[in-house]
Amino acid sequence: MTLELYHNILGPYLNARYILYVNVIAQPSDYLKTLTTFMFFHSFWSPGVDVCSTVCAVEDDISQCASSALNGFKAWSVLSCYQRAKVLLRLVSVLGQHGQCVSELCELCGASCSSSTLIRQLQYYSSWAQLRDTLITNWTPLGVVAVVVSDDCSLYSLMLKVLPALAMGNSVIIVPGLNTAPPALLLAQLFIGAGLPAGALNVLTGSDMSLCAKVAQNPNISHVTYSGNKQDGVMLCKATAGMGVPLSVSPCIGATCPFIIFESADIDSAVDEVIETAFKKKREVHWVLCVQESIVDSVVTRLKLRMAGMKCVALRSDGDRVLVDAAIQEAQQQGATLIQPCSVPPSGAQYPPTVLCGAAPSSPFVVCPAPGPLLPLMTFRTHTEGVTIGNHTPHGQAASIWTEDLTLALETARSLSVGSVWVNSHSVSDPCMPVSGHKDSGTCTDGGQEGLYQFLRLRSSPPPLPRSSPVSMDYSNFGTAACPAIIPDDSDPASAPKPYPQFVGGKACKSVSGCSLAVQSPGGSGVLAYCPDGGKKDVRNAVEAAIKVQPGWMKKSPSARAQSLYSLAKGLEAKRRDIAASINVQTGLSMDEAEKEVELGIARLSDWAAYCDKVQGGALPMPQSGSALSFPEALGVLGVVLPDKNPLLSMVTLLGAAIATGNAVVMVPCQKYPLPALAFIQVLQSSDLPAGLVNIISGGRDQMTVALANHSVIKAIWYWGSAEGCQYLQHTCTSPLKTLRLFCQKDEEGKDEGKDWTQSHPSFMEEMWRNAVQWKSVWIPTA
Amino acid sequence: SSYWHDCMHQNLEWVSKVRVNTQAVLKRAQHIQGQKIPKKQWQAAWLLKAVTCIDLTTLAGDDTPSNIHRLCLKAVQPIRYDLLKKMDMHNKGVTTAAVCVYPSRVGEAVITLKAANSSLPVASVATGFPAGQTPLETRLQEVRMAVAHGASEIDIVINRKLALAGQWEAMYDEIHQFREACGDAHMKTILAIGELGTFTNIYKASLVAMMAGSDFIKTSTGKEVVNATYPVAIVMVRAIRDYYLFTGQKVGFKPAGGIRTAQESLLWFTLIKEELGNDWLCPHLFRLGASSLLADIERQIYHHVTGQYPAYHELPMA
After folding, report:
1. Distance from B52 to chain A by nearest Cα, in Å?
2. Residue B312 counted as domain residue
3. CATH number at residue B237
4. Is B254 in the active site?
5. Which one of A53, A748, B122, B308 is most buried, by most CB atoms within 10 A?
6. Contact list, B19 vs chain A (CB under 8 Å)
7. Based on the structure, what is the number of domains in chain B?
8. What is the value of ipTM here, to two decimals?
9. Which string of DSSP letters, residue by residue, matches B28-41?
């Protein structure tokens, strides 16, 4: 079977249809033989000839593959850490023998990846496989992980998902893109040769994203992770919404990244490097050159001189040529001047490297970059303006900054809202660097120890989402059901239910609409209180206030944040009776038990205060010489739809996690038991937290979910609610991408397993704060 | 040459603003070393080109008229005649660019070359070569005497003390005086990069040397611990490019010290072509300071022509 696979894929009969998944046990002699065959044939291939053809997997293949992956998971996860590490290391030596073959196949498929890069990845993750149980206790693998990449994704990005998943003990189904399919098949084959249990690594090839949705639909899959371009990522989000499978997205292709040259830079080096990276035939990001005004002339002169003699760059298609021509024409109409080393060929899929001088952030070719070797050049006046221009894009993937001034370099690195900052360098990637896509550039962290948690879950908590089939729902109608009108019963003013305010921008207030909701008493026997019926406008006001104070809050020293949290705990202690009473009337819990929950809440806030200066990055062990640093950064503004269970304790736990790590938060009390959260407003009012950092808006859960989902500033949503709500969020939060933590809580009383909020295990807290931060890596190479 | 005086302030600012990022330069050097080198007849052509750029050098304490004589005659016929003939290059006047000797040996070199009917220039090192630690007056006198003995190219060494102390103006003044002492002779300024400490200093020294009127800037004397390396060359040629951008003047570049193989000479051409462009690929603007390099190039050419590797005694010694 193995032999057949190889013979067919790599042999001269290129148009045949063959097997799509590799889950067979290969004899060592078999794979060696097939490799020889491959080496023999590849010498006959010439550029432009199809390397091989793969076909689309069908339903049978998927279910067969998924069940083999489940068996693979069983066999793989029972192995000891040492045994798993050994398999990864054995692949290193296999690659030592066949590295040439792998990199040549990659080259032929247009997914170039040197074997030394692969070896570095394998070595890095084999050590994590070895130390998983030693250094990451209380976490367990997810099960079967589907790794999906788009056609234009590199093998490096693919393996940056596959290897950590395997190292942590998951089994993997790779759904590769066109470019990565042949090398992925070959690597899977080599892996099995290196002793990976059958089924632990599977490759399913197909033609488009619809295959991925079918794979995700399979109940054996525990997690789907995606790397590639944004469009396919969004399609995948929409297609998998409601399947009950968590999806993490790293849209690493096609982001706009600033290349910032300050006046204190080594201009010659900066110019050489930007020319090297911006005009590549295959480039993963769109660079925008930002140059300080004082040196723009000398940069432009050097660009002209250094680009002289460069030849035309091949475009992907004639269609691209049309786009490039249109972009250039538009740019020239707006007064941009061009630097081109040679004349533009009248037609054909090639174009000379072109710098578009006189670009502005509003230029169409900056807003919507065309394919091809085009590099917009913008100027800025001051360091601060450089950062502002660099940050003013929807993307937050990476930036390259050039300066010899250490202070400026570090300040700029901290201020740029991107996952990777390369100082005096560019496009450096290494598996030891934890990188989260900021803003629209991703919903997860890849690389480093931090990236491993994508493929792990807490031993103590069950999977958050039950597997389900997407229900057909009208997304535009979700959350629009009118709430029942309230007819106040004021026959007896003494016993009339109390109206509670909500908390927006540091002020207790009514909802913008002025409407209220009735809060039912635990037995459902009567109206307990009225709470505001918040909506879009309330969320808008809250976010407005939050973004004013959040950057300042994040910049505060950790100990200052800790002080504020300690005083919040103290404030809760002062109002413990009131709060306990609200729990008591709301949930029907005895006063003793209610006080115990408040007690736990006070302890929890103190825990978070203590965590403030314990959440930290560090120096990374890069193989090259230089300094690599990682920083945990706040996500920004978080939206939280609170769980029903332990209404006070769960709220202070999530609130603490969010603000201890520097975020601002907009919280929606659970619709069932909103009173403890609303009672907590008085504690917040007397605290010294900046006004707007914490907002509490009550209202219909679905209605509020819609309001949070449709505010682009909110970077993440933690949601406890219905399956439809989860599906709605997965479907809606795609542009910009939001990091979603979804928990489907069952509505029937007493059956809710959920999280145990009373536990105070360190890894329970760790999971919380890891969800509340995103990572940035800064690379400063030195000689 | 009065450029400095015209805009002293501007030039000082130019020098002070220089920044060089070491790792980026090292990376660039590595990139260039990874470039493909021409093969077969193209390689042979480049090697002949390299021969014409060599300053065939002997700078030893035991130099006497007899080895200077040998060196000069080798410089005039650097490649065996029959080999050149096979390549149809025998009547193209393939000689080295110059011979380079100590000041006291200039006279003998001039006589030998004259006797051989050659107009090959004689270059002389001067100004207290290699350390430059002699009084300014004697250094100037050394230049004048070398010129008087018939040297048409003078390789001066800079005063490292001034460079390391950042006294660029003083260094400019010294070099400018050497320039005047040279008269019509070409002046090549040796920066002794192995003793300048940082890339930034090398860049600055290059700029000052050019401002003071050098026709060439040269990496090293061959007597320091570190000599011509590719990263240093990148820094220097970038300075040359910078100077050209500002003034429109093309200054030459001469790596010297430690260049021994034909392979290396090809890499040097690659570097110049990449960084400065084709204009600099001629003896007017590019020289290789070397002594044993020529023997290796001749061997490679022998191999190209005959298909076999020669023993050293098959090729005339220098």
Report:
1. 25
2. no
3. 3.20.20.70
4. yes
5. B122
6. 264-267, 404
7. 1
8. 0.84
9. HHHHHHTSPPP-HH
